[in-house]
Design brief:
Length: about 500
């Protein structure tokens, strides 16, 4: 026998407009006595709700086969403890679908008595799509560290001759990084002597990041802010070779935006980084290479909150919390060429290759009210290989107290590993009772195939090197300030303000 089910309601889209939606389902009801969240496949509002319906239905079917019943009001033999808590939650969803679908023989005792929209909302609350933000935070941290390293290397290349050729003994001599003089030439001597430079430099950088992501079929809307700090040392072996290391620390916070999507919650990250590097440069060519290790620590609060209109069924209102780590390895290399349309202007095309391997450890949430909604999330391994085509233009401005180097920078990123990334999770309280078929296999937005970044900044040598008898050169100070933004990542925006200083010793 066939039956029709119709439900209507409203949903708020991401522009906060209301639109009416309806769902019509044609089902073979005589043989669906045990369910059906699956009766509405193809009619849910998003792919995420579709996946949550499939997974919750599978959990219901498996636990029912093991002895859980539609009428039990408390734990009993064959369906006790954590298993009963999970059963209670998925049973409410299935009974709601039974009621909406008028399923013959399907129990509606623990239905939420909600409309079809309410069922979809409840499914999304249970889905756990918030887990995908950990990958986003890890990527953002690594990209920030690589960007900071790039800025540091650029500053080294811009600043070395200004440091070495600008001294407190000769305060009126400010030579651009792109004008090749030796010290003797600068003060009227011969051209055979090499410039004097300070080999050691220490630096400190700070960045502030903010942005947002709109809701998609697979991921929720959120806003984020963060601050990062990095510092380190570099040592100039000679005029062409520099080695150094960057150490970084970052704190970032994500807050899910319930005005743009359904869920609420937060994800906080504290991350650490160590990134040694080497730089080779001549007057026109530069090559850099770095390897790094990063560790990120996440603290997540995931709200599960939806109403019941059945007086015999309580509202669902709990929080699943978790703490877990990610380990990230990076390799990055760049090569570029600098040419000079004029003595005070240089243009630099360059290309970079960035490889990243991220491992997010398995972890288990804690449901603070023991309502059975906590997940065990399996370990994740994620790889990324990006090529970057960049263009930088800068000019030299000689002022009375230093050398200013304003610049613009544009980069085009292409991702070469495009495998789909899914997050596998299972209800933690019933993990031992469920098969792999009951996992929530959560799709993500996946890697963006290409995007761009644009930046402007100002670097300055504000104090030249002081030459001292017998101990070489020291005391040069260089500072920078920059702004950059990411473009052409769907539903995502990010902006960064960065600043830093380097001191020669």
């Amino acid at each position: 026998m066939f039956s029709f089910a119709f439900s209507w309601g409203y949903r708020v889209n991401k522009k906060n407009n209301y639109r009416y939606v309806g769902a019509v389902a044609l089902v073979l009801s005589a043989n669906t006595a045990n369910a059906n969240l699956l009766a509405f496949q193809g009619l849910y509002a998003s792919a995420l709700e579709e996946q949550a319906a499939i997974s919750n239905q599978q959990v219901y079917d498996e636990l029912k086969a093991q002895g859980c019943t539609d009428t039990q009001g408390s734990a009993q033999t064959g369906c006790d403890g954590g298993t009963f808590r999970v059963w209670s939650g998925v049973r409410e969803l299935v009974h709601t679908a039974n009621e909406l679908n008028n399923t013959v023989g399907g129990s509606t005792l623990y239905s939420l008595d909600s409309d079809f929209e309410g069922l979809g909302f409840a499914l999304r609350w249970t889905a756990g799509e918030e887990f995908s933000t950990q990958e986003s935070l890890s990527d953002g941290f690594v990209n920030g560290q690589l960007s900071g390293l790039s800025t540091r290397i650029t500053a080294l290349r811009r600043g070395v001759k200004s440091f070495s050729l600008t001294s407190n003994y000769y305060p009126d001599i400010f030579l651009s990084t792109d004008v090749e003089f030796s010290m003797n030439e600068s003060i009227g001597g011969g051209a055979s002597a090499d410039p004097v430079f300070s080999p050691w430099g220490g630096f400190l950088n700070a960045t502030y990041t903010w942005g947002d992501q709109d809701a998609s079929d697979y991921e929720d809307a959120f806003d984020f802010t963060g601050s990062s700090y990095s510092g380190g040392v570099d040592y100039r072996l000679n005029p062409t070779w520099v080695i150094g290391a960057v150490m970084g620390y970052s704190e970032q916070d994500i807050a899910f935006d319930a005005n743009k999507s359904i869920v609420e919650g937060t994800v906080d990250m504290a991350a650490y980084s160590l990134m040694p590097f080497v730089l080779y440069q001549t007057d026109s060519i530069f090559v850099s290479f770095s390897m790094g290790y990063q560790q990120a620590e996440f603290t997540t609060e995931r709200y599960i909150r939806y109403p019941s209109f059945n007086p015999n069924v309580a509202n669902t209102d709990t929080i699943a919390t978790s703490d877990n780590d990610a380990h990230i390895s990076t390799v990055s290399s760049s090569i570029g060429y600098s040419f000079k349309p004029s003595p005070a202007v240089s243009i630099e095309p360059y290309v970079s290759i960035n490889y990243q391997h991220t491992s997010i450890d398995e972890y288990t949430e804690q449901d603070i009210k023991n309502q059975g909604f906590a997940f065990t999330v399996e370990k994740q391994n994620i790889e990324s290989l990006e090529s970057v085509w960049g263009f930088r233009a800068q000019s030299i401005v000689n002022v009375g107290w230093g050398v200013l180097v304003p610049y613009i920078d544009a980069q085009h990123y292409t991702e070469h590993i495009t495998d789909d990334h899914k997050i596998d999770a299972v209800y933690a309280d019933a993990n031992d009772s469920l098969s792999n078929a009951s996992q929530f296999s959560l799709a993500t937005n996946g890697a963006e195939l290409s995007y761009e970044t644009y930046g402007v900044g100002l670097s300055a040598v504000i104090r030249g090197t002081t030459y001292t008898t017998g101990s070489g050169a020291a005391g040069g100070i260089q500072v920078y300030l920059s702004y950059s933004t990411i473009r052409n990542i769907k539903d995502y925006t990010q902006q960064v303000i960065a600043g830093g200083a380097r001191y020669e010793f």
